[in-house]
Amino acid sequence: MDLNNFPITKTKLEGGSRFNLSDPAQRRQYFEAKVGPELKVLKKFFADGKTFVAFLLGKKNSGKGTCSKLFMEAVGNTGVGHISIGDIVRDVHAFVATEAGRRQLIEFLEKNYRGFHSPEETIDLILGRNQSSLISSDLIVALIKYEIAKHPRQAIFIDGFPRALDQVGYSMYLKEIIGYRDDPDFLVFISLPNSVIHERIKYRVVCPICKVPRNLKLLATKEAGFDEATNTFYLKCDKPECNGARMVPKEGNEQGIEPIRERLETDDKIMQQLLGLHGIPKVYLRNGVPVAQAEENLDEYEITPGYSYERNADGTVKVIESLWTFKDENGEDSYSLMPAPVVVALIRQVVQVLELPT
Length: 358
What we know:
With about 350 residues, this protein is an alpha/beta fold. It is built from twelve helices and 15 strands. The protein is globular and about 70 Å long.
């Protein structure tokens, strides 16, 4: 299996309704229309107290967290948890800064951590480490176990592990290492071209008040403005309490993927290595679909729109929506998908790897 040629999941419904995938209520209707039988058996699976461990594997900004959260939304958040390695490390850093938190983690590490530093030394390393470097793999495993202890009897999506080539060996037997029952486990691969990641980063903006992110090119708000001084368009936050605040880019985002190119290459190598792993089921999620194959496989509203802007005669700005195309890794004109159809593919394949009847 090649990362750039995962199978395309057909989600098109002939004569089906059109859903607004940005609206939670309509997303529920969408999931019911597309994967109603699969959701029924999954809900029964969780209601029966059954669980799984799923490893989310994808490049930075490929949507791993979004996929798991929409999966949880689709099944009703019943019996499913999401663990982000990045969040664990950040949370632990803040937690052990307090004396009570430090004592609690030391007690846990004394029982569960095997490594070349004492628990006290390990916590000092967490507090003093360089944020740009990765902490040791043996400590990551202990922290995963620490976090999983907060999710009793839940299926778990583990997001961001392995994140370095030396962690691949740990990932093969992580379920056994963390002692997480006898749950079925599987790998979830998310294929997303670098060109999409580049656009997601380069045009990302955030509201300075509510901190909600949007994208000038791929996820516009209802209103936009024009800056005469810089001759550029900008988005206005939709939230009423923000009073149309001008959304701003994060410094460095204009470089797109360049600052993280090395990280993306490492992510690619890790996924390619794990694609060849035997003895564990795999789920293949594809976010780019060639234009030539889109009509027979997708409903148009499932395709990520692109946005451009025009100034009206009165000085206001018109937001124009159209289908956005990009060149995939094979050089083909392609569409990117909204998160919901990717999650439809996830739901269908999870049911398959768990061998649930539909």
